[in-house]
Amino acid sequence: MRYQELLNELQTxxxxxxxxxNKKLLKNDAISVLGVRVPQLRKIAKKYIDCVDELLxxxxxxxxxxxxxxxxxxxxxxxxxxxxxxxxxxxxxxxxTCDCFTPKCIEKHKDEFLEFIxxxxxxxxxxxxxxxxxTLLHFYVKEKYFNIIEDILKTVExxxxxxxxxxxxxxxxxxxxxxxxxxxxxxxEYTDKKTHNKAIQKACESYRLTAEQKTYLKGxxx
Length: 222
Description:
Elements: H1 3-12, H2 16-26, H3 38-46, H4 52-56, H5 63-74, H6 78-89, H7 95-100, H8 110-122, H9 126-139, H10 146-155, H11 161-177, H12 179-187, H13 193-204, H14 211-218
C-alpha cells in the first residue's frame, strides 16, 4: 500500500469537530491532526501487521499516521517487536501516542524488557521517560516488581511535565495494588513535592480505595 492510500483512508474517517477537540488535548501545536478516532485507527493498523516495515517508512506528518505505525508494531510477536521498539519510541512526541503504545508481547517478556525500561529512563527525552514509566504502569505493577518500581521512582527526574504526571500516575497505581508498601514509600518523601501530592490526588480519584484510605492519604500531602 502506498502512503497516499493510507492518507485517503484516514481522511475518509476524519471528523473536523473531533480534530479540533483532539488537537487541544494533545497540547502540541507542532502536531498535525486529521481527526480520526482511536478505535478506527486500531482497525486500520491491524491491516498493516504483515507489511509493518513498509508502514514504518511512511512520513510522520500526521498524528494518526504515527499512531497507526505504533499500534501495528504493538501487535507483533516479541521477536519482531523488539527489533523495532527503539525506532518506535523515538517517534513519540505526545502523551496520547505514548499512553496508547502498549505492546501486548511485553506481558510475557517483562524480565527481558527491563533493560529497555532502564535505557529509556536514561534518555533525556521527555517521552522516552514517560514511555518507560507508563510501560511499568501497564505491565509491572505486580508484587515481583514493586521494589524495582520504587527504586526507579526514587531516582527518575520528574522536572518535565509529562514525566512528572506519569510518575504520579504510577505511584497512584502502586497505592491501589500495594497500599501499605506505597504508603511507606510516600512517607519517606522520595519524590519531589509536586509529584508526591499529584500521586495522592490521583489515588484519591480512584474508586478502588476506601474512604478511610483516601482520608489518610490526604493527610500525607506536603
